[in-house]
């Protein structure tokens, strides 16, 4: 980036790298794994292709992200975080916790990545033993994996190598409605809009993982 705060403070130097509009949201949308340009564009309503291209270029120049070419026959370009970029995860999770107390925009929509990152933001390490397991969230055509072990939870795009302890299958709009408390889990499952697979205790654990960050007065 050509602009700089000209300040030696680490906060200012960090903002020199990720302080431009959309930059941190690009990083947020890559926290769960690589994405194509079109996927990033679709997940950031309001950003133009030109601005997104510029942010990707700037973040790559600063070593925050890199482009990976899958080559023939796919000829697909993926954008992914570098180790330096992944270092922003705790910053973004804490910023998300802080920002969740601000008034929401009147027409805002939760991105699916943001909803599932809420699992990490709302995770209580003291409950890890009670939530231990491998869980799949199948949202439309995408699958996300949550793994709870020791005192941490890992969330990423992808499927379990074996059979998950529990799986939740749902479309994006229903998932948003359940997390926003506009629809109950019981209503969603009775109507067939949401399906839970796995042993009963594991089904309850996957719901606890998902809904804890969106439960008032937790």
TrEMBL record:
Span of the signal peptide: none
Start and end residues of each HTH hxlR-type domain: 9-107
PROSITE patterns: HTH_HXLR
Keywords, in A-Z order: DNA-binding, Transcription, Transcription regulation
The protein's name in its UniProt record: Winged helix-turn-helix transcriptional regulator
